[in-house]
Amino acid sequence: MIRESMIHWRGTDRIIRKAYEQAAGGKVDDAVAILRESSRESDPDGRYTEAIGMILYQAGRWSEAAECLLRALQIKPGDAQRMFYYASASSRAGEWEKALRILEEEAHQDTSSVAPIATKCLILLERGETAAAREAYKHAQLRFNSHHKQDAYAMGLLEQCAESLSQAKNETATQPQPNPG
After folding, report:
1. DSSP secondary structure, 37-85, as one string
2. How far apart are CA 61 and CA 69, in angstroms?
3. Is the dihedral of CA 36, 38, 40, 46 positive or negative?
4. How many CB atoms lie within 10 A of CB 128?
5. Residues of the chain whose pLDDT is less than 70?
6. Which own/partner pairs from 89-97 qualify as long-range (CB within 8 Å, at least 24 positions apart)?
């Protein structure tokens, strides 16, 4: 499963901080309104759009979160955190095929990044598709071994894949095996 503790709010922007405080107080719609207003004025790097998506993600509003995070990812392609949360929100909204397609596109656009493949691994694990997740993890490892320059967030995703696959293997090993006779 995706660990909720991985979520962190980037930056020290006072508008974003104010929105997070509103959301923490249960005023998610007010937080979103603050950020939408700011994004209309100026959002060249997509940080307000990303913050809206992250707040909606935390609120469990998966479809809305995915929409915002996809826009933020389009503003800044290759951003590992935006990619991960977009794919996770899409998967949770029942749009996992779309999420996997976007991850494939990201993987083809940046052939050195581990992030889209590690994210795919985690989404597949979340869906219970351990064998496919294991293949994605192997692909991510190969990519990492040939391109050592990765951002810290992408490396965290890869480590989480390894941990989750290890847990899945341990859970399978401890389950009673059927009697063939």
Report:
1. HHHHH--TT-HHHHHHHHHHHHTT-HHHHHHHHHHHHHHSTT-HHHHHH
2. 12
3. negative
4. 9
5. 1-12, 147-150, 172-181
6. 89/53, 89/56, 89/57, 89/62, 89/63, 89/65, 90/62, 90/66, 91/123, 91/126, 91/127, 92/62, 93/62, 93/63, 93/65, 93/66, 95/63, 95/66, 96/123, 96/127
Q: What are phi and psi of 112, to 5 degrees?
A: -100, -15
Residue entry with tokens 């192997």: 138
**Element housing 136 (H / E):** helix 130-146
* Positive/negative CA dihedral, 101, 120, 71, 152: negative
The answer to whether residues 59 and 68 touch, using CB atoms and an 8 Å cutoff, is no
Question: What is residue 5's DSSP assignment?
Answer: G
Contacts of 146-154 spanning 24+ positions with Cβ under 8 A: 147/112, 147/113, 147/114, 149/112, 150/113, 150/114, 150/115, 151/80, 151/115, 153/80, 153/81, 153/84, 153/115, 154/80, 154/113, 154/114, 154/115, 154/118
